Description:
Structural class: mainly alpha
Oligomer: single chain
Strand content: under 5%
Number of strands: 0
Mean pLDDT: 76
Shape: elongated
Distance between the termini: 76 Å
Helix content: 40-55%
Order of helices and strands: HHHHHHHHH
Number of helices: 9
Largest sheet: none
Amino acid sequence: MAAEGSSAGSASPVCPKASLPLAALNVRVRRRLSLFLNVRTQVAADWTALAEEMGFEYLEIRHLEMHADPTGKLLDDWQGRPGASVGRLLELLTKLGRDDVLVELGPSIEEDCQKYILKQQQEESEKPLQVPAVDSSDPRTPERGGITMLDDPSGAAGWSWLSLMITCKAGNVTSRLSLHSVSLQVPIRSD
Length: 191
């Protein structure tokens, strides 16, 4: 029994990463936690006491009572609130005197935390390498300048080319009337 007592005292920091989000706890741990807390007893704090410690109001707790698994719903609702973490949950269970839960679920919580950390590290290592800042897409050298506004953002090359084409077309026009009917057709570029 003494071993269990010392184990319960050290069960609070079960997960070395106390700031892990509640999402680190898998379904198995959540269901087992529900088995402990869904039972209403006079001698141990149940899910309603945990809800109060988590900051839920009376009407919110009454609403949670309607669910078949109020502890599960409580954890789901709480994980979206600021300050919700695995470490905070363990602190609250310790504060409520639920050392039995900490002793029983401690190894499973530790395992879930380790799995979560490994998964996060794996996802981080699989991300493609990217430069933190995107450079400007403006051409840096004159040979990269094009003839359209997309190729030459300043538009200088495009307008001078267009002006030259209009002048060449107008030179082929014989009368003022045909000057109004001149059309310049430029194919659309697909690049």
